[in-house]
Each structure stands twice: as C-alpha cells, then as structure tokens.
Amino acid sequence: MRVFISYSVADIDLLQHVVRMIHASGDQPLCWQVSKEPGKEAWKSIFEWIDSSDLVIVIITDKTVKRAMSVGQEVGHARAVGKPILPLVAPIVQPSDLGCLSGVVFQQIQRENPVPALRVVNRVIRRMKQRQASEMRRIVVLAGALVTTWLLGESARTRRRRTITKTYR
Q1: Most exposed among 19, 22, 37, 62, judged by the fewest C-beta atoms under 10 Å?
Q2: What is the pLDDT of residue 147?
C-alpha cells in the first residue's frame, strides 16, 4: 500500500514516527523527506505521489496551522482526486483551524507519545488492505466466471459448426 504523508517541516519528528510505522508494516511511505528526487519538479512529484497513493495522512500541529500552506495544497489535491484522508491532529489545534478538513474525523497525536495515534494508523492501513484483498478476490471470481462463460459459449459454437458441417457433407 502506498501512503502519502503531508506535514510541516517543523514536524519532522512526528513524520519520522509515521514513516517508520508504515515501513514496518511493509508499506511504502511517500513524502518529500523520503521520496524527493533531485532535478524533478517538486509540485509535479507531490501531486503524482498523492494520485498514486491509497491513503493520505496529514500531520497537523500548531506549527502546521501557522506556516504550512503547502499542507493545505496537498490536502486540497487529495480531496479533489477522492483520496481517503486520515488527519493526525495535535491537541493544541482547534477544530476551527482545520480548514478544508473541518468536519472530518481525526485522530489526535501527541508529540510526547505518538504511539496511540500510530496504532490507529496501523489499524486503518490493515483494514484498507483487507478491503483491497476482498475486492481483488471478487474481481478474480468475476473474471473466472466470465472466462468460463466465454469458454462454454465457444465450445457450444464449435459443436454447432461441426454439426452444421456434418449435415452439409
């Protein structure tokens, strides 16, 4: 699973916790700190990471609210392309400061003890993986049914052709 993480550079410590947890679960974190490539255009890369992600995590602290306009752009893009968003919000942040995430259920994250929030992130990712696996099973079953139906139809057409050919000989 690919997980994009939006954050303020002032929150690198929280970002590192989230990145480690995502790596530990076998998933791929996507964020500027981890994924940037010299020579590539920044915003084009960021939007591509968001577009290719399965989940967007947003770390919001008082520092984010004060200075991280880029977080707002990333969240706006994620919402525009319909990505699920999991906000991790510091206790000091007021709900009215959440902007376009106002009304979205968020998980509180504390800088001194991020473990409870990381457990929630892990649980959300596990559930998403289970849903993806279930959808994949349904697709495989449906594809199998379509192939079987096609093969049975081809077999019936072949038998009819043989019958018709024998009749006219």
Answers
A1: 37
A2: 73
Question: In this structure, are residues 89 and 118 in contact, taking their beta carbons and an 8 Å threshold?
Answer: no
Query: DSSP character for 54?
Result: S
Using 70 as the pLDDT threshold, list the residues of the chain that sit under it: 68, 155-157, 159-169
Token pair recorded at residue 146: 């379509």
Distance of alpha carbon 93 from alpha carbon 68, whole angstroms: 14
Which residues have C-beta within 8 Å of that of residue 95, sequence separation ≥ 6?
102
Asked, for residue 147, whether it belongs to a domain, the answer is: no
In a domain, 94, yes or no: yes
81-108 confidence digits (pLDDT tens): 999 999 999 999 988 888 778 778 899 9
Q: Give me the domain span that covers residue 51.
A: 2-132
Edge-to-edge strands of the sheet including 107-108?
28-30, 2-6, 55-60, 85-89, 107-108
**DSSP string of 15-72?**
HHHHHHHHHHTT-EEE-HHHH--TTS-HHHHHHHHHHH-SEEEEEE-HHHHHH-HHHH
Residues forming a β-bridge with 87: 58
Partners of residue 55 on adjacent β-strands: 3
Return the number of other C-beta atoms located less than 10 Å from residue 79's C-beta.
Answer: 14
Does some domain include residue 158?
Answer: no
Asked whether residue 164 is assigned to any structural domain, the reply reads no
Regarding pTM above 0.70, the answer is: yes
